[in-house]
């Protein structure tokens, strides 16, 4: 049985159980956020519907009915079961009604539900049996962190583990969750807080929901979006399956994202099924909001401002994802894809009732209580809850190292007599910072300092755009309509740059050795490029089939080959680049007369100097 891969094994940046709602816009899959539960209306007529309603206002089909508290919405439980004491604090209920806060509408489950396929039955030959033996004197003996199953993220199978009832490696099966409470946050809808001190590494809660196929996940997220839901509850399980906690789920569905989280998701193999758990990555004191990094994948459309409040906040949900980074990278002067008018923006803070002075809590034993905002609930990173009107500036990666601090280049003169090509050793690269842009036909375009400077000046950060948009839309009682995402036209360089013309460069150099070295480097570079292209053809089917989930379909050996080929390509580019710089700097150039006469005669560079 193969252990479940941790996320760090994957070549691609996104962990496969990252949260994302997907939406097709112009043929692409795009992310969106969903729902929320808050409605603030003058009369107590919010009623939970099966799907969380849009923030834009009451659902006419439900208006006029009375608010129901979350605990009474629990219509079914499975697995470990919600404790039967689903008591609603009457004061809290009154508060909810007064404030007309719609409570989360979902069916509480404590183990995954399978609608499109049967729950897998573990075959006997697949059962991994560890070597642990219970020793009364050694508390770590029954399947602690030395247990082979534990080390491979696999739970022990009851009846097969020699430690029997003492086995500590059945946390999902035994629902050994931490105590948590549901709270109303400022700006981010509901959230979950620790209702006890949680230790680093501790299993906090399972992310439960309906296990659905990837195709179904796509369809559902489109449907949710059409229904106006804004909070995303679909988490990726692997290339083929997702967990949808929109309608049915555990309290884990309320854990918000943070760019500096105190938890993380981990996949575990439990009796033959893969399950997702939320685990503490640090000690979490009682009352602290739980969070993990969604690794939200952004494909276009609404940019959701991240309100986690962390110092290193990336500004938007999904800002680290490839789609987002490509979209906010560089664009041409006439490219108005991301002008203020074109960004559909949604800011959850704008929909929050401002008058709420208390947080409302639903504990995992089913109790709702009022929670004073001024007391212990706070994000781990900053005191108090997220600040709706402030956010950390987005970090836009610099193109190169700091251009003004480059040391002068130190190039060793090429030994005139030497016919051998020696591997180049070059002092720290300096002079004009150059940027290589790989264009589709495999050739390379280079740009120099001016590109760097202009891009620095002209690329507005997404935050800047967002701020402007926010100012323009001060009254956000309704969701800003989602315009179709602009078609992605791929990453574009700021300017049309001159292509590197190797024959021309060689033509200008008087030394044949210099030409040879450059030509040799170019050949190596071309080889590296064709190797990486060939390799990409092997990976492409998986990439195209499952887009971001493909990391699960790419074998580790292929991923390793890809990394190696990428490194070779980078090195070859660098060597070519460096060879050109070195030779231009250290080799005599042809005289003007010589050049002119050669051009007149139409002589080719290879005849030069040979
Ligand atoms: C899995 S739900 C989390 C629970 C959600 N807050 C609720 O009220 O049901 C994910 C959604 O919560 C909101 N959210 C989570 N973390 C956020 C953050 N750091 N900033 C802004 N919105 C956030 C987004 O709308 C996101 O799609």
Summarize this entry quickly:
Residues 178-295 form the SET domain. The protein is of the alpha+beta class and 610 residues long. The protein is built from eleven helices and 21 strands.
Shape: elongated
Spans of at least 5 consecutive residues with low confidence = 1-79, 81-89, 337-345, 350-497, 603-610
Instruction: Describe the strand arrangement of the main beta sheet, using strand numbers.
Output: 4-8-10-9
Work out the count of structural domains. 2
**CATH level-3 fold name of the largest domain:** Beta-clip-like
Sheet-strand content, in percent, reads 5-15%
> Count of helices?
11
CATH arch. level architecture of the largest domain: Beta Complex
The count of β-strands is 21
Structural class: alpha+beta
Mean pLDDT across all amino acids = 64
Helix content: 10-25%
Let me know the largest β-sheet: 4 strands, mixed
What distance separates the N and C termini?
63 Å
Radius of gyration: 29 Å
Subcellular location: Chromosome; Nucleus
Domain Post-SET: 302-318
Biased composition (Polar residues): 448-478
InterPro entries: AWS_dom, Post-SET_dom, SET2_Histone-Lys_MeTrsfase, SET_dom, SET_dom_sf
Structure overview:
- The protein contains 11 helices and 21 strands.
- By secondary structure, it is of the alpha+beta class.
- The protein has 2 domains: 7-130 and 169-325 and 346-372, Beta-clip-like (Beta Complex); 403-416 and 424-458 and 500-607, no CATH class.
- The protein has a 4-stranded mixed sheet with strand order 4-8-10-9.
- A hairpin with a 5-residue loop joins strand 20 and strand 21 (444-447).
- Helix 8 (502-508) runs antiparallel to helix 9 and helix 9 runs antiparallel to helix 10.
- The chain is elongated.
- The structure holds S-adenosylmethionine.
């Amino acid at each position: 049985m193969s252990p479940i891969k941790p996320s760090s094994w994957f070549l691609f940046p996104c962990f496969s159980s990252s949260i994302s709602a997907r939406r097709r816009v112009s043929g692409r899959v795009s992310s969106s956020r969903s729902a929320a539960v808050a409605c603030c209306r003058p009369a107590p007529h919010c009623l939970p519907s099966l799907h969380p309603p849009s923030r834009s206002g009451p659902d006419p089909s439900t208006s006029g009915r009375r608010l129901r508290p979350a605990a009474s919405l629990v219509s079914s439980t499975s697995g470990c079961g919600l404790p039967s004491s689903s008591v609603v604090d009457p004061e809290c209920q009154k508060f909810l009604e007064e404030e007309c806060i719609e409570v989360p509408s979902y069916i509480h489950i404590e183990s995954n539900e399978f609608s499109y396929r049967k729950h897998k039955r573990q075959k006997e030959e697949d059962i991994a049996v560890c070597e642990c033996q219970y020793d009364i004197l050694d508390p770590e003996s029954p399947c602690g962190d030395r247990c082979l199953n534990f080390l491979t993220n696999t739970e022990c199978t009851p009846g097969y583990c020699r430690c029997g009832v003492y086995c500590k490696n059945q946390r999902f099966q035994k629902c050994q969750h931490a105590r948590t409470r549901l709270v109303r946050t400022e700006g981010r809808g509901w959230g979950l807080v620790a209702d006890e001190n949680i230790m680093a590494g501790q299993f906090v809660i399972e992310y439960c929901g309906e296990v659905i196929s990837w195709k179904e996940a796509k369809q559902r997220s489109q449907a949710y979006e059409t229904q106006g839901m804004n909070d995303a509850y679909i988490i990726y399980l692997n290339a083929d399956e997702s967990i949808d906690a929109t309608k049915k789920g555990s309290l884990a569905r309320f854990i918000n994202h943070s760019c500096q989280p105190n938890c993380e998701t981990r996949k575990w193999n439990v009796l033959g099924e893969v399950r997702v758990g939320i685990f503490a990555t640090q000690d979490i004191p009682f009352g602290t909001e739980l969070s993990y990094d969604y690794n939200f994948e952004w494909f276009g459309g609404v940019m959701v401002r991240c309100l986690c409040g962390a110092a290193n906040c990336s500004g938007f949900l999904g800002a680290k994802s490839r789609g987002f980074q490509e979209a906010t990278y560089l664009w041409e002067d006439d490219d108005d894809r991301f002008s203020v008018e074109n960004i559909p923006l949604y800011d959850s803070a704008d929909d929050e009732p401002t008058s709420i002075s208390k947080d409302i809590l639903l504990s995992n034993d089913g109790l709702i209580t009022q929670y004073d905002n001024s007391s212990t609930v706070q994000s781990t990173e900053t005191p108090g809850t997220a600040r709706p009107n402030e956010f950390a500036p987005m970090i836009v990666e610099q193109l190169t190292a700091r251009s003004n601090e480059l040391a002068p280049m130190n190039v060793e003169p090429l030994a005139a007599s030497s016919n051998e090509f020696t591997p180049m050793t070059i002092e720290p690269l300096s002079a004009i910072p150059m940027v290589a842009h790989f264009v589709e036909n495999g050739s390379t375009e280079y740009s120099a300092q001016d590109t760097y400077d202009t891009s620095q000046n002209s690329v507005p950060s997404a935050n800047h755009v967002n701020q402007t948009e926010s100012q323009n839309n001060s009254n956000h009682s309704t969701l800003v309509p989602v315009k179709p995402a602009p078609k992605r036209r791929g990453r574009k360089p700021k300017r049309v740059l001159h292509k590197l013309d190797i024959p021309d460069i060689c033509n200008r150099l008087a030394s044949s050795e210099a030409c040879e070295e450059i030509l040799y480097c170019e050949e190596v570079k071309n080889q590296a490029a064709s190797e990486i292209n060939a390799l990409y053809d092997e990976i492409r089917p998986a990439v195209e089939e499952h887009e971001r989930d493909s990391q699960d379909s790419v074998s580790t050996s292929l991923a390793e080959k890809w990394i190696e080929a990428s490194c070779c390509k980078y090195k070859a580019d660098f060597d070519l680049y460096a060879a050109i710089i070195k030779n231009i700097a250290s080799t005599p150039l042809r005289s003007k007369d010589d050049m002119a006469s050669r051009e007149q005669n139409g002589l080719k560079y290879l005849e030069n100097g040979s």
